[in-house]
Amino acid sequence: MYVTGKEYDLLVAELRVELGARTDGGGKNLIARCPFCGKDGKFGVYIGKETVRKKPFMAHCFSCGRSTTTLGKLLESLGRMDLLPTETVAFDEPLPNVLFPLEDAEDEVDDELGIVSLPEYWRRTFTHPYLQSRGFTYDDYDRFPVGTTCRLNHRWDDYVIFPVIDAGDTVGYVARHTWSKEEIDLHNRGAARNGDYKILRWRNSTENDFVKLLYHYDGIVEGETDTVILTEGIFDVVALTRKLDLYDNRHIVAVATFGKKISRTQIYKLQTKGVRTVVIGYDGDAVEAVKHTASELSAYFEVFVADIPDPEKDWEDLTAEEIYRVFAYGLKTPVEYQLTKIQQK
User: Fold this and answer.
1) Cβ count near 139 (within 10 Å)
2) b (16+ CB within 10 A) / e for 232-258
3) How far is CA 162 from CA 199, 243, 283, 286, 316, in A?
4) Which of 106, 115, 259, 270 is most buried, judged by most C-beta within 10 A?
5) What is the reported pTM?
6) DSSP reduced 3-state for 217
7) What's the pLDDT tens digit per position in 239-291?
C-alpha cells in the first residue's frame, strides 16, 4: 500500500500514542509493551526506510514471537482500522527493482541479501596494535566496527574482522591477517615443505556475493548524501574518512566496491539512495579499471576521477594535505582523465 509522507507521519504519531511507545536510538523502531503478551519493551514496530528485508510498519514481539508483516495486519490486531489510509494509485512511487534508464527496464537487478553470522567469538575492539600501526584513531573504531575472536577461535587468530553492514544487518565480513605480505609468503613457503597450514592474507565471508555489497553503504543517507567516493577497499574508506574529516559529513561519503570494478547491483544500490555524483578513487595504478568504471557510471551519475599522481601510492600512503590537493585540483572528468593518460604514455 502506498502511504504519503503526511499519512506516514500521522500513522507514526498515532501508533506512538496507541502503544505508549518510544523511539529507539536509531530512530527506526517504535518500542512498546506487547499488545499480545503484555511484556514491556519487547514489541517493536519498524518505521524506517523500506529495504530489501524490512518494510515500514512490520512488527514483532521478541517475547511471545507474534508478528505482523503489513500495516493493515498491525492496525487490525490493534483494533485501529480507522487509521488505515485510503488505497490510492501512487504515480510518483519509485520504479521497481530495475536500473533507471528505460532501455534497461526489463533487466531486473538481483540485490537480495541474507544475514551473515560473524566468526564464533567475534568481539568488537576499540584498540589493536595492527590497526594502530595503520593509523586508526578512536573515531575510526567508532565509525567502522572491527573486531577479533580474542584467540578463542584459532582459525581466526591474528585476523582483524570487519563486518559489512547493509540496512543495519551484517551481510558479510572481510578479515585481514595482521602479518605483512612478506611474513605470510615466508610462512607459506615453509608450510608447503612441512605440510603445515597456509595463511590467507584475506579471508572473507562467502554467503553473499561481494558484487552485491558496498562497504560503508549505511553511511550514505538517502536524501542527504549527494556525492560518493568509490574506493577499492576498507582501509581506503577509513583513510579518506579520517584524512578528509568526513565522519559527520552526510553530503560526501566514501564507500568501497571490494575491487577495481563496479557491478550493476552496486550501481542500483547507489541510485536507490539518491546519489547524484560519483568520484572514482581507485588506486593510481588502476588506469584501465578507472576508464571502464567511469564509462559504466556515466550513464547514471555525474562522474569525476580523483587522479592520484603517483601510481605506486594509495589513500593510506598520502598525507591529508596531499589528499586535499587531489580533490581540490586533481579531479578530472572521464574525458579529461583519458586524455591525461594518453599524453603520459
Assistant:
1) 14
2) bbbbbbbbbbbbbebeeeeebbbbbbb
3) 18, 20, 21, 24, 17
4) 270
5) 0.70
6) helix
7) 999 999 999 999 999 999 999 999 999 999 999 888 999 999 999 888 999 99
